[in-house]
Design a protein that fits this description.
The complex is a heterodimer of chains A (about 260) and B (about 300). In chain A, helix 4 packs parallel to helix 7, helix 4 packs antiparallel against helix 9 and helix 9 packs antiparallel against helix 12. In chain A, about 80% of the residues lie in helices and about 0% in strands. Chain B is built from 14 helices and no strands. The radius of gyration of chain B is 26 Å and the shape is flat. Classes of the chains: A mainly alpha (about 260), B mainly alpha (about 300). Chains A and B meet through helix 1, helix 4, helix 5, helix 6 and helix 7 of A and helix 2, helix 3, helix 5, helix 6 and helix 7 of B.
């Protein structure tokens, strides 16, 4: 068999398989954009004419707006709480003199592993009698539990990379432990803390399973509202909301990318 | 020499270590470390440990010790079928993710220039789109008047729209799409740490490209493959959103059965028992595979 032909054929074959897989990977995410801009009430592809009607419908709907602001409020508070708690945890786990560190570490990351449906049901059972369902504080607690591991992961990695002899130098120059932490260690791990904060924000804003169980009519997140609408009335407004959510996620991850590239 | 008691000996040893190895500089004291962990403990107890403990208690006591909910789980053929389906779907999703994810990870690790940028961006967008959005997209694609059916009827491949959604294949397909990044990222991280020169060296020594891949590159990427498979399988076992939206009554899995019992039938003790079973299964797999499971492997590999 002539070798160059054979190689070209193999390259073509591998290329098309890879292309198909990448198509499968991105198509479902990208398909929502034309749908959100489509004039028709039904899902049509390709769209016959373009409109921003569904976006207007989203911004003019008080239910969607209430859910969006509720989600944003929760996500911002979760970011603050999870970033502070996660950073403290990472410092203790990397630099602390702790017995049973591996068990503590496993406990810290366990919310990532426990099925969210189990946590959702469990939280509902405890929160409902306390009137913490559909409640800001209830969501803050639940989402902080879920967001902390992301912050701990990023900050722990930064602390493990950090050359502690720099801190030693500060200490031997007469800085106190506190001062050396705040003016030497903290500025060094700050980019990673910021990345952890973005992860925390997205993990709360995009979280759907636990939010499904601890929302109620008085307070529901954007994901719960979306779940309901997908189940009951499949309008292109959902595509508009989806496009906005994907845009937000990709924008924030692009920021992380940028921060990482600079450090 | 005078014999020291074990405690005194430890004290001497500690002082010795402190004086010579500077562990006291490197490490914060136990007390300070525990203070640093206190907020985490508070949140974990209020929002994780206590609720889960409460759930397990509810499944076992009513109010006396009562295993009837568990007996119901394990003696009803329907629920055993649900459990079998959960494992079958999780396994199918893992295998499919591996088959589709490995080439993607390989391409991401080996491509250069503009193609590498496109590949990275594709994985990036897919990974960071909310799960709910991606499940919705699959409904749009697969429903009765959805895009795939439109395409099939308009091109005349089929005369009637096909029933593509609310069945097990649709659930497997959509879950594979959602969980694939958890397979891609660990494999990508493993492959990136294998220098391309290794395969070149093998080729240089006379191996064919296929042989170099199967004897050199693939074995070196196995830690990533195992981590990805375990992560995918564990997440698939307890996945709720996608099977709830894309599955039908005939495709109940553990998570959707729990959701149904809790939200539609309001049978909380039974939902609690099912949740406890799912939790124990998940923890069992985590414990068995804890060596290969690594959360941070690949997590930082994005981009």
């Amino acid at each position: 068999m002539p070798d160059p032909y054979w190689r070209a054929l193999v390259t073509l074959l591998i290329g098309s398989v890879l292309g198909a897989i990448f198509f499968f990977l991105v198509l479902p995410t990208l398909i929502i954009i034309p749908i959100s801009l489509n004039t028709s009430n039904y899902i049509e592809f390709p769209p016959k004419a373009l409109t921003l009607h569904w976006y207007r419908a989203y911004f003019n709907d008080p239910d969607w707006m209430a859910a969006t602001f509720f989600s944003l409020k929760i996500a911002m508070a979760t970011t603050v709480a999870a970033t502070i708690i996660g950073t403290m945890t990472a410092i203790a786990l990397v630099r602390g003199n702790l017995p049973g560190k591996s068990i503590l570490q496993a406990l810290t990351f366990s919310p990532m592993i426990v099925p969210h449906i189990v946590l959702g049901v469990a939280l509902y059972l405890v929160f409902a009698p306390l009137r913490l369902t559909g409640n800001f504080l209830g969501f803050l607690i639940a989402h902080t539990v879920l967001a902390v591991p992301y912050v701990v992961l990023t900050v722990m990695a930064a602390l493990q990379r950090f050359d502690f002899t720099i801190e030693l130098a500060a200490l031997s120059c007469g800085a106190s432990r506190l001062r050396s932490f705040f003016s030497v260690v903290l500025p060094n791990i700050a980019p990673s803390i910021a990345i952890g904060a973005v992860f925390a924000f997205l993990s709360s804003f995009d979280e759907a399973t636990v939010a499904f169980f601890i929302s109620d009519t008085g307070g529901k997140t954007i994901s719960r509202k979306m779940f309901e609408d997908i189940d009951f009335n499949l309008t292109p407004v959902i595509a508009a909301v989806s496009t906005i959510m994907v845009g937000l996620s990709v924008f924030l991850m692009a920021i992380i990318h940028h921060v990482k590239a600079r450090t | 020499m005078r014999k020291l008691s074990p405690i005194a000996r430890d004290g001497v040893r500690r002082r010795f270590r402190q004086a010579f190895t500077q562990t006291s500089f490197r490490h914060y004291s136990t007390a300070l470390s525990l203070y640093l962990l206190a907020p985490l403990f508070a949140v974990l107890i209020a929002g994780f440990l206590y609720p889960i403990g409460h759930l397990v208690k509810l499944s076992l006591f009513s109010p006396g010790l009562d295993f009837s909910a568990y007996i119901r789980v394990f003696e009803t053929p329907l629920y055993m079928a649900v459990m079998a389906r959960t494992f079958r779907v999780a396994l199918a999703v893992t295998v499919l993710s591996l088959l589709l994810g490995f080439p993607v990870a390989f391409a991401m690790a080996r491509l250069k220039g503009r193609l590498a940028l496109v590949a990275g961006a594709a994985v990036f967008v897919a990974l960071w789109s909310p799960v709910l959005v991606r499940s919705y997209a699959w409904i749009v694609l697969l429903q009765r008047n959805g895009m795939v059916n439109q395409f099939l009827t308009e091109t005349g491949i089929t005369s009637e729209p096909l029933r593509l959604i609310y069945n097990e294949s649709a659930v497997i397909l959509a879950m594979t799409h959602v969980l694939m990044p958890f397979m891609i990222l660990p494999i990508f991280a493993a492959l990136r740490s294998v220098p391309g020169e290794y395969a070149l060296a093998a080729r240089n020594l006379g191996a064919t490209a296929t042989r170099a891949f199967f004897r050199v590159t693939l074995p070196l990427s196995l830690p990533g493959v195992f981590a990805g498979c375990v992560m995918c399988f564990i997440l698939a076992l307890g996945f709720y959103i996608t099977p709830a939206l894309i599955g039908g009554p005939g495709t109940l899995m553990m998570a959707t059965l729990i959701g149904q019992q809790a939200t539609a039938l309001l049978d909380w003790p039974f939902a609690a028992a099912l949740s406890t079973v799912l939790l124990c299964l998940t923890l069992f797999f985590v414990l068995v595979f804890r060596k290969v499971l690594s959360f941070n492997r690949g997590f930082h590999g994005v981009g």
